[in-house]
Amino acid sequence: MFPSVLPTYNRAPLEFERGEGTWLTATDGRCFLDFGAGIGVNALGHAHPALVEALTAQAGRVWHLSNLYRIPEQQALADALVERTFADTAFFTNSGTESCELAVKMARKYWYDKGQPERVNIVTFAGAFHGRSSAAIAAAGSEKMTKGFGPLLPGFVHLPFPAHGAELEAAIDGKVAAIMVEPVQGEGGIRPLPEPCLKGLRDLCDRTGALLILDEVQCGMGRTGRLFAHEWAGIAPDIMMIAKGIGGGFPLGAVLATAEAASGMTVGTHGSTYGGNPLACAVGKAVLEIVGEPAFLDEVNRKAGLMRQKLEGLVASHPDIFELVRGTGLMLGLKCRVPNGDLVQAGYDQGLLTVGAADNVVRLLPPLNVTEDEIAEAVARLDAAAGTLAGRGAGA
Ligand SMILES: *Cc1c(COP(=O)(O)O)cnc(C)c1O
To answer: Any coiled-coil ranges, and where (predicted)?
Structure first.
């Protein structure tokens, strides 16, 4: 019989019924340290009291309102995001994929309205992940995501990651509308774009007029220790896609943009039934109020330094299992010498949740309010997991 849930996921046989902070309890009673956080979604862990309060208080008032009307919670979240970022304006979506769709539309409409309708191409990079819609898979361009789903949406130019100067310069011709890039690739294997490259992209965009679209769906909302990852490089995008952490587990995404980049998006050009609904925006505002605090981000950086140090030690003591640690903030990856899936599985057996990524990497994306003790415990569990795999590594 065909599965009643479309079988597109390779699911682990784990079933959870409760969560609190960094911990999840399975239906069979086992407790797990959650260092996947729903793939970087549960930014404040499970059942954070402030988020539960924001959600339930809003649920008692009104759940859904059409964008035919003003939505005060949406306005408040937009104002808060505009106040704390480069952006002049925000459009709310329900996912990263939808944010990608709008980013592409916005960039193309910008040039159309400027009288250069030929500028439609979006430059993207190998290993990128921007979502699963037709535009998003065409943006990523990999065979793994696109095979069998043609004809693909045209207008994407794919470069290596990170691309080198000359190659990039040559790619930005009169048909390019925008460059789209993740400051830190997530699905691609926790690969940070070196700071000079991000600055170089900004400079190239300034010289050619191309819009810079940053996909901060995974690396944004405090994950790297700044509210948004690009802040480390001291640059700003023209358009930014966010989702995942902003809702803390409630479906919410957004496209943030400068007034100039957004100038083509006039009344009637875009919309969403659920986008910016009161429940999502009430939760998003509560997340932002906590994660946006400088003292909270200082703590993220402090704990990130601690975790990185412990992971370096782990790699040093299991050179047959691990090759290196990479990433930034609380977005860290262990490049493995054994198949990464084996380590994820061995972690499950030790009561630790991690997430695989491309390039044989295991991702560690704990809640941003993870404690020092939880970090120490997670690394101890990784150590035990690696111990059970000893002898299987390439170096053994
Ligand atoms: C997860 C992700 C997306 C897609 O987000 P969905 O909410 O799954 O649609 C897009 N870009 C990046 C960088 C992501 O990590």
So the answer is: none
pLDDT digit string, tens, across residues 98-152: 999 999 999 999 999 999 999 999 999 999 999 999 999 999 999 999 999 999 9
Same-domain check for residues 316 and 249: no
CATH classification of the domain holding 216: 3.40.640.10
The answer on 134 and 102 residing in a single domain is yes
Q: Which atom of ligand 1 is nearest to the CA of 253?
A: 7
Q: Virtual CA dihedral for 287, 291, 295, 299, nearest 10 degrees?
A: 120
Any ligand 1 atom below 6 A from CB of 131: yes
217 a known binding residue? yes
CA atoms within 13 A on the CB side of 308: 15
**d(C-alpha 79, C-alpha 165), whole Å:** 37
Classified as helix, coil or strand, 247 is: helix
The domain boundary, picked from 229, 262, 291, lies at 291
pTM above threshold 0.90: yes
Residue 9 resides in a domain? no
Cα of 387 vs centre of ligand 1, distance in Å, is 33
Rounded Cα gap, residues 106 and 120, in angstroms:
11
Specify the long-range contacts of residues 136-144, CB closer than 8 Å, at least 24 apart.
136/97, 136/100, 136/101, 139/100, 139/104, 139/180
